[in-house]
Amino acid sequence: MSKRELEDDDLGGSPRGLPRSIGRAALPFFFGLSLISGAWAGVVFKQLPLGGNDAFPSISTAQTADDFVFSATTAISGLTWWGSYSDDPDKLSPDAFRVSIHADDGSGHPAIDPAVEFTLAPTRTPTRLADVSGADVYRYDLALPSHFVLAGRSTFYLSVVNEFDVKDPDATWYWLLSDAVGANFYRAAYVDPWGDDATGNFSFAINGKATTPGPILPLPGTLVLLLSGLAAMTLPRGDVRSLFSR
Fold first, then answer.
1. H or E element in which residue 3 lies
2. Start and end of every DUF7901 domain (predicted)?
């Protein structure tokens, strides 16, 4: 349930519903990978945070996602998102973000399995914002060690999950809603289908560049990239941080 619902629940409110059942679909996912490096990226998609907005938990047992579409084929070099905590983060377990991008399953929902996934640690920066409960909002910048290409005019879904609750059951991370209006998606576990909720869009931004790549590979099924071993190739983090004001 969201932070606002947590307050309402004390007065008899109902929690966020359980994920609806949706069908699997093995649609081809068009994906290209490039090892090009350099500080050429700009903001290619954004849903900016809004102070005082509600926020929804996104942890291992309550996962969330939001959709995005590029107007043209785009090489992605970094991601930024905003969120808050159930307590002072210094008193909780260290962040353990799992960030994934999903193709559409054919029914307007994210595919169950991710097409690409990252477990690299982002840079966390305090902001001057607070969520609906008054908790401090933080910005997270993740510079990718290699660029990957997503096809334009196709719906994809970004999921940001902080798995730090695995080591600390009392830890909850909340993804802040943005200034945009629309639906978001949720599920209870990685093997579950996604349900949808018309409570608003989450705050995040994508850094990259519209491009005309070489052959874009049609991959039957999914490709999971665990890039922790490529940390030595990480792009300069300043390229991402400088794109956003605090």
1. helix 3-9
2. 60-180
Q: Are 163 and 98 in contact (CB under 8 A)?
A: yes
The whole-angstrom separation of Cα 164 and Cα 144 is: 21
The pTM score is 0.75
Cβ contacts of 134 within 8 Å, gap of 6 or more: none
pLDDT in tens, 205-232: 999 999 865 444 333 344 444 433 333 3
Distances (CA, A) of 159 to 13, 111, 142: 27, 11, 14
147 in Cβ contact with 44 (< 8 Å):
no
Task: Give one DSSP letter per residue of 39-58, joined into a string.
Answer: S--EEEEEE-B-TT--EEE-
Whether residue 75 contacts residue 149, with contact meaning beta carbons closer than 8 Å, is answered with yes
**What is the DSSP secondary-structure string of 86-102?**
SS-GGGSPPP-EEEEEE
- DSSP classification of residue 239: H
Strands (E), the chain: 29-34, 42-47, 55-57, 63-69, 74-85, 97-103, 116-118, 123-130, 136-150, 155-162, 173-176, 184-187, 195-197, 204-210, 217-219
SS3 223: coil
CB 75 within 8 A of CB 213: yes
